[in-house]
Structure formats: structure tokens, C-alpha cells
Amino acid sequence: MAEKKIMLGNEAIARGAYEAGVKVSAAYPGTPSTEISENVVKYEEIYAEWSPNEKVAMEVAIGASISGVRAMASMKHVGVNVASDPLYTASYTGVNGGLVLVAADDPGLYSSQNEQDTRCVARAAQVPVLEPSDSQEAKDFMKFAFTLSEKYDTPVILRTTTRLSHSQGNVVLEEREEVADKPYERNIGKYVMMPAMAKGRHVFVEKRMEAMAEDGCAFPVNRAEYGDTSIGFITSGIPYQYVKEVFPDASVLKLGLVHPLPKKLIEEFASRVDKLYIFEELEPVIEEQVKAWGIEAAGKEIFTRQGEYSANMLRRALLPEGVETQAPASVPARPPILCPGCPHRSVFSVLKKLKLHAAGDIGCYTLGAVAPLSVIDTTICMGASISSLHGMEKARGKDYIKNWVAVIGDSTFMHTGVNSLMNMVYNQGTGTVLIVDNSTTGMTGHQDHAATGKTLKGEVVPAISIYKFCKAIGIEHVVEVNAFDLQELERVIREETARDAVSVIITKSPCVLLKGNVFPDVCAPVPEKCKKCGACLVPGCPALTKREDGSIAIDATMCNGCGLCMQLCPFGAIEKQPKQTTAGKGEKK
Amino acid sequence: MMTKSIMIVGVGGQGTLLTSRILGGITSGAGYDVKLSEVHGMAQRGGSVVTFVRYGEKVAEPIVEEGQADVLIAFERLEALRYAHFLKKDGVLIVNDWRIEPITVVTGAEQYPENIIEDLSREHKVYTINAMEEALKLGNAKAFNVIVLGMAAKHMDFTKEDWLRIIEKTVPPKTVEINKRAFLAGYGS
Prior knowledge:
The structure holds 2 protein chains of 2 kinds. Chain A is an alpha/beta fold. The mean pLDDT of chain A is 96. Helices cover 39% and strands 23% of the residues of chain B. Chains A and B meet through β1, β8, α10 and β21 of A and α1, β2, α2, α3 and α5 of B.
């Protein structure tokens, strides 16, 4: 009997890649896509890497495909923006070995800076999109994606969303299909996209998409489930599950291929149901095309473009009786925060003290924007801290940015920060760049990168030195500082922000959650010395609380012993104590 | 069988993902269709986190919505209060009697509510345990979440033996014994 296993959507995508005979996988971590690579790497048959950014990952996969093997790249939705340059032209070249881009959208913004819909990119790039609805389909569609890719000579996007990627469900496992490497033949008409060749390929791309729209009517992934024909839904992905939950007897056209759309199938379905709804999260990608064909349907006039859908949302919109729910209790919010012992908190406490503005970037340190730290002013996208600071200087002059710094993490610096820094040097900027180096990609759960000295496969390799890199591009003032040395940090930041030249301050201390990185002691208050001034509370460490009498309590089970509060106390009222090894979290009060 | 809905709520870093793996294992192992939805990424940095588990003959929706949970397992009091309206009328609430102050309380912007358990008990069937104290008695505070799970297990459809078997299969080999003892401490052997 076939083995059945409960799998995370992302784990099932990785399994699908394995069963499809994939040989090369490249990615840059990003929620909700990260676990795809973390599972792909478990299969010895697949070469898997963390690339420095998504564009590089996409190009690695394209190269592998041209050489004749099945290859994939995976990334979050905003990563697709970074990879869109190679993607748009890979649409023209097509493939040799099958090529699949797994794009993970984040409706509801669980961990992202915007809520964009990858299907819009796919339409613009003229690349087909498959969208599964559960873990089993995630695996099956991944395999089908490679079949489509090779049959129609196209990269294929497998679109997932946070809810699918991070939900578990049962999956039936199958054997790996050993796919023979395809021979490579030189073909500049197909693989060299100069204008003359690209013109020809554009014609091919149009024909390919027309053929897929036609053939798609018979693909098993597009399925009309006829029931009560007084009401019909066109839907796909996770929203399909909400339709089945609320209207188990309604007629449903479940689309697995969401671009190009199977026009004839949709026309037939529409003609057989009385009232047609189009139920899709985010943008009206299906709806606009269906309506453009003159088919009457209801969609975004009822269902929002924002956030995640749910069964209750559908009940409220369409059931006459609606749905009755209790109002939630009014309770204090619990937003995410920097961990106790996080080196970013230490660096931010200095920026706060010096009243500096910070052009921020993407990572845990984005959390420095909110109270009580409140030091990050801007967050746009990966790498934007350095280049946007440069733009401010060019707009308003070098004195304008004397109380500004750029703040970027080590992984984000390797991703696209390097380009921005080269620009600052080349175009004679004078900005101060803080690279907060915690030796990992923190927010996504600790992935290695080119400056950590370890690969996704776990091999130890020479780490690229950020310090030497900055020196090599001609920056004279590059300083490395221990992130917890407040005095030195303050001195260096004052000195470098005053300087009329580009400078880079690399603040170093590993992420406190990294295995093996533990401070030996914990911090404890000395009540008789405490003057209740609150200086230790300023950076907002969650292990510290103020008692009713104004003195300080430190939760020994949460404290990681970084000693930041101890340094901030002017009265020596906090000291280190040996850690008890059986610590948990929180307290009974 | 009607689909059953379980929720686990807590604070990022409290180990909700291990508990959800055990729940996924036991429901799937018993031959049910199961869907289980987790939170990864930013919220795990000390934020409010929630895991949904639904099992039955055929499960469509992967999330539990307001008014639908048969069992709500809360690893912290404030989180119990935050999600209590997800319970069915006759749903069961299991609360770890423990307080972790959110940053909004630490900074003084908001107040941590008093008498949470008493207030919740007026509307719901509430079972409480100080799992951290129990875990420390067992010699490992980290096992507190499996103690809470043990208490919740009495309100689900599986035998003690099933639970112990799946714990053995799911947790790291070195922690099998402590986790089994933790489970029994909550289950009340």
C-alpha cells in the first residue's frame, strides 16, 4: 500500500519536486516559502542552494534547465519582483529540462511588506500558473507543472499562499521518477534573446498561451463539480476549500490552471448555473477576464481585494441568515518584538539615545520601528535602506543626512545591499551605513548565506568577509564593533555620522536564537541599589517589567543574559547571576 | 463523524509547533482526514500565535473560525481571553495558568487584565493547570506544553495508549521519557 504522510504544504511541494525528478533547486529564504528549500535539501538526489537573492536563484534554475535537467526556484511574492527580469525573458526562451518557479503569496500579510498577487506578474510575463488547494495537490501539481513546462516549452509558476504553505494535510507518497538529462543543442534563436530572435519567440509565446488555454479545458486540474445549478462558483486554491465548507452542494468550477484560463470550460460552466460567483483572494485576475468575455458574474463587488478569505466571510456575504459570532474580548495587543538578548536592541538603544533617524530594511530589525524603540523611519524592500538614504542626500545635501543612518542586516546586505553600497561609493555619497551582522538570516528562521561560511547542504565554505568587501569597493572608513559594547558603539556612530565620506559600521553579535550562542549568566536586579529611574526599561526588553512600587523585576526564565540593561543602569542595580538550567518562560502571578 | 476543531494559542516561542505536530500525528494516524494550520515567520518573535487543527471524515477548510472550536488549548492566560470567542457554546477551554506580559503592557500603554480565569469560567467550561510548576517538578520546564496537551487529551477521541505511541514517534528521541511523563501528569494517568 502506498505510504501516507501528513505534510506541510511546503513540504509537499518539495516532495513533488523530488518525485518529479528535479535535480537543481535554488532559492532565497522568505516567509511563507522558506520551508520548501529546507525540505528539498533533505533529498540527496537534488542539488539545493541558498542563492544571495531571488534573481540569482531564478537564473541558476534557468541555467540548469537549459543544460537539460528539471530545475526549480522558490521564493516569496516580493522575491518574484527581484527575479522578474530573468522570468520575463525565460518566458521567451522557454526551457530544455522542465523549469518551475514556486511563488508564495501572503494574503493577510502575515510576514510581508505588501499583499501583491503573483498571478498579475504571470499574466504580464505570459507564464502559466498552477494553483493547488491542499498538501496533496501541492505535491501533484508540482509534478504536473514539470510535465506542462516541457510539453509547452515554458517556465511554469506554481502559486501557493501562506495558508497552503503553512497548513498540513495528508499526502500519498509515490516513487521518484528518474528523468534522463536532455541533450543540449546550441540554438541561438531560442536561447539568445537579441531583438531579431526575441521577435520570433514572442510569436511563439502567444501561440503557446493560446494552445494552453485551449488544451486546459481538458486538463484534470480544471474540474467542474456539478451539483445544485442555481448557484455556481469559479474558484481556485485555498478559497475553494471555503466554498466547499459553506456550499457543499453548489456547482463549482475548480481551476487548477489559473493562467491562461480555459475559456470554453468557463463558458460552459457559466451557461449551466443560474447565479455565478467568482471567489478569488486578492486581485480579480479570473474575474476581469471572465467579465471581458461578456459573462455575467459577481466578484469583487462583494468580496474584498484585501487579506485572507474565510468560510465565515462567505457565509456573511451570501447566506441570508449570515453567521452569528461573539465579539472578541478587548485585550492588550501582543505584537511581535525583538527577543530578549537580541543584539539589534542594543544597537537601537544607541540610535535612540543619539536621536538619529534610520532608513531601514527587511528583517527582524524592522521591529525597531515601533515603540518603545521607535528608531526606524522607513522600510520599503530588500536593500532599499542604503539607496534611499543616498537619494535623501542627493535631494537635500550632505548636512541633511548627518542625523540619519541606513540600517541593514547581513543577509539583506548580501541580497541587494551590495549594489546600493556600490552606488553610494560611485556617486560620491557620504552616508553612514550600519550593517547589523547577526551571522544569519534571522526572521525566516536562521538560514545561512554567503557571509556565514555554510551552505544549505551544510558544507563548510569560506565565508565572504563583509568588512573586506566594503574595503575592496574603496570605502576607507569601515569599522567593526561588538553590538553590545554601548560606549564604543556610541563613539563610532558619532564619529562616522559626522564624517563627509561614506562609512560602514558593522555591528557584530550572533542572533541569540542561534544554536550554541548562549550567554553564561542571567541578569538580576539588586533592589537596594535601584533608584527606580527606568533607564533599563527604555529599549523594551520583554524580560524586564516594572513592579507596582516602580522597582524592576527581571524574569529569569526569559532573560538571555546579554547585559544590556546592566550597562544602561547608572546605579549598578543590575548584576549577573548563574543561570538555572530548567528555565521556562513567563511567571505565575 | 462531524469534523472536530481544536485550537492551540500561545506566545511565539512557547512551542506550539511541537504540540501541533503531535496532534497532527494522532489524528492522521487514526485514519482521519486532517488539516492543520500554523503560523511561521514574524509572529513567532514573541507575538500572539495560533494553530488550528480540524479532523473528521473529510475536512475542507484548514482554519477554525469564531464559534467553532470544540477544544481551545491556551498556553497563557491573556491568549485564552483573546481567542475565547472561537469556542463553541459547549466547547472546552484548557488554560495554562501563566502570565507573559506583552510589550504593550510592559511599556505601560495597556493593562494586563485581572481575573481572566474567573471571567472566562462564567461563560465557558474551563480547566486550568499550572503546567510550568508541574513541569519544574518533573525537572524540565520546557515540557509544560505537553502537560497542557495531556489535560486537553481527555476531551478528544483517542486512547491514552494512542497518545503515548504518537509522542514516542514525534518528539526527539532524547526527550521521549520526559514528554511521556509530562503527558501523563496532565492526563492524570
